[in-house]
Amino acid sequence: MSSRRLKNISKKDYENLVCVDLVCHGTPSPLIFKEHISFIQNKTNQKIIDYKFRGKEKTGWRAYIKYIYPDGKSEKKIWGNDFFAYSFYKSRFNRKSCFSCGFSRSERVGDITLSDFWNAEKYYKPLRLQRKYGFNLIMCNNQKGQNLLRKISSDIESITLPVDVAIKGDVRLRHSEPIPPERDSIFEEFYLHGYEWLTKNRCIRHSWRNKIIPIFIKNLIYEIKARI
């Protein structure tokens, strides 16, 4: 249940009711995700017990996709080499409602808002040496949110930055994303031909630069640039 709907139903601001909203990249089709997992399981002849969008053990927030199997073994892929993850980050599998989402704005409905905090290190230099695992954003949208943050302040490490920094760094705090030109045709092809057909005909096309430069070199370049 959304924060807005909950508040509309309660008709009262209960002191012990804290509403939290999230800044969302978008919601991909559950059916396509299910088909993706089945596709990988059939391809590897192994059951997948977990799928992580961001395995951070080695590369931090510039993470890889991680498939975990019952025997404890795992398979890692950079997101650009995983068809579902690539399509997710390109918003090709998102529900249509995501592209006209009324919550993609800085005026929030929760008492606090949680999100990734993109580019925080650009505005607070000490963070540059700690950016490997990314930063979390806590936006206090009213007095109740501020009181809650104050209560937990001794249990977290935090800094205060202007809200405009967060808004500038995350497009979802400004507006919803335009629908990708290929989104509708991809769904039509999925229902007509199936998921495996998509992986072969809507596959990832890397530029020559992406093909010849290893991912760890790219990440190293990004890290150096961020610390300058």
UniProtKB/TrEMBL annotation:
Signal sequence bounds: none
Domain Coenzyme F420 hydrogenase/dehydrogenase beta subunit C-terminal stretches: 5-155
Top-level lineage group: Bacteria
Protein's name according to its UniProt entry: Coenzyme F420 hydrogenase/dehydrogenase beta subunit C-terminal domain-containing protein
Source species: Duncaniella dubosii
Highest classification ranks of the organism: Bacteria, Pseudomonadati, Bacteroidota, Bacteroidia, Bacteroidales
